[in-house]
Amino acid sequence: MAGEVNIKRLAQELNISIATVSKALNDSYEISLKTKNRVLSLAKELNYTPNPAASNLRSNKTKTIAVIVPNVANNFFSLAIKGIEEIARKYGHHVLIYQTHEDAEMEKSFTNSLLNGRVDGILTSVSSNEYNSDYYRDLVKKVPLVFFDRVYESLDAFKITTDDYQISFTATEHFIDCGCKSIAFLYGLGKLPAGRARLSGYQDALEAHGIEFRDELVLDYSEDEEVNFSNIKTLFKEYKPDALFSSIEEFIIPAYMACAELKFRIPEDVKILSFSNMSSAKLLNPSLTTITQPAFEIGNEAAKCLFKILNKRGVDDDKDIVLKSVLIKRASTGC
Amino acid sequence: MAGEVNIKRLAQELNISIATVSKALNDSYEISLKTKNRVLSLAKELNYTPNPAASNLRSNKTKTIAVIVPNVANNFFSLAIKGIEEIARKYGHHVLIYQTHEDAEMEKSFTNSLLNGRVDGILTSVSSNEYNSDYYRDLVKKVPLVFFDRVYESLDAFKITTDDYQISFTATEHFIDCGCKSIAFLYGLGKLPAGRARLSGYQDALEAHGIEFRDELVLDYSEDEEVNFSNIKTLFKEYKPDALFSSIEEFIIPAYMACAELKFRIPEDVKILSFSNMSSAKLLNPSLTTITQPAFEIGNEAAKCLFKILNKRGVDDDKDIVLKSVLIKRASTGC
DNA sequence: CTGTTAGCGCCTTCAA
DNA sequence: TTGAAGGCGCTAACAG
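^ Those are the sequences you sent over. The predicted structure of the assembly is below.
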């Protein structure tokens, strides 16, 4: 369509062979400086760019990586993608993005469509609705792949994650230090290690401080915002927790709405803390303490890891990289 | 790496020719049903998938489109991408995503890297920092391209936009109806039609209601959040506006912070209205009236438009599609 | 230093 | 109904 200009054409115009042109373009040591310059300047003049399909076919490299995420309309993932892109660009690679919408079937179908050499490698954050461990066990043998954030822990594969357990423990302790006695836990991603680690951190912190863990203070996430809203109201009415620890961002809004409806002031009547990368919400709500994951850095590390694999360097490194999340306490509330 | 299984292999195993296999796979009428079935079942058994690089090279089609946006970590664009992906998947296409970070040079460099047939078409939302009209005038001749949201109006090209002028007019009227006399305008995207249309809508609404337009009530956006914060405080102190109309989401936070610092209550002391696709912020802040653009639909329409072009259908349709934004008034404030 | 040649995997004439 | 052959644009042996 656009191009029309290929190495054959360059070769003809310069009266040299196709191979010479190719080598000149690839800066081969076999070619004289003079020829290189002639080729390069004509290439520039004619606006030559190599046909990627042809190079791909020949070299079995696509200069393309794929990113598979549940969703891009999400603060965490969009930042992670930014981190990935930065590295990809540095390596001159293109980035294909696929959204699974938490659908494990779609996840598999996207992934399978990438196994025929469309990409050099894959970065993936698995969907939360089904445990697909067997599938990925086979997959990692077929294609360079790095998991980030949402991983299958039992898998022998490259994984970039955060310290979900540790930061949850710390956050729960923070509440306890503030004098909270009855801390409810809003539970999400229960099928994934990340979600379960957050729960464990909470449980263990309670235990460490001699506070009894009560099952009825744990609320499971529902896809339906209305249900979450009503469940939180019920939770407030029946068990009167003095704090809410939300393990996923999606609980923040129903929690706030429930407080508003019940005329609870935050943080005077009830404290709220959430995992969240919603930067603006933090600023808008000085009463909300948040755990922020280093989303950008996770993307960055994951991509770096993938390129290490692709370049066959340092693959003997530790396969598990764990980054630190940050607990941001709201100064204005003193807690 | 993964594949190894190609039509040659299929042909050998079945003792037929490569050409026959190829035709069978493409469901050619020349091939007997029996042969087709043999080929297809073996293909399935061996998990055959065609090598994309080879098909691309042969057919000059990549089954890939590119999306170029300023940023994905943004409510509007991430939703738009979702809309684009939905359509792309329907057409069996893959989606490359590039972020310009509002850098016109990067925008050009990405775009240029796509002109050699790496993609079948491009969807783009231009960056705001430089007016690149000449560049795009040439570009649209070289590659199927659809602009969405951020466009160059003077260009004869496919464009999917929203009713920025109209909705700004309506929103300003809404303020006037609420009794506001001194409405400040927080101005962004001034180099782009969308931004200027928002300003015009505001100006014309004032005029239509006999309110004088005052230049000092218009505040330009700065990249520096702190500067915006301080400018808004100054604006409040010097001109005491009773309403703020923010033409971009990025002003919301400094505006809120300024109000907090000056102990202004929203909406009693000052009303705030903003263009925003920050769904959570709306719910968290019942006092904020918002203009929400149909981001998902814009992506959807843009992608549909591109595939129409690629399939050479309906190209004579109107090149300009304008979708409607929605003004969401906060019931709780009565304004 | 430069050129010739043989494919990468697929599709498409054209011939059988 | 099937097969043989050529070529998409590029690269990598191998010769000269």
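Chain B touches chain A through 50 residues (CB under 8 Å). The mean pLDDT of chain B is 89.

Shout if you want it in another format.
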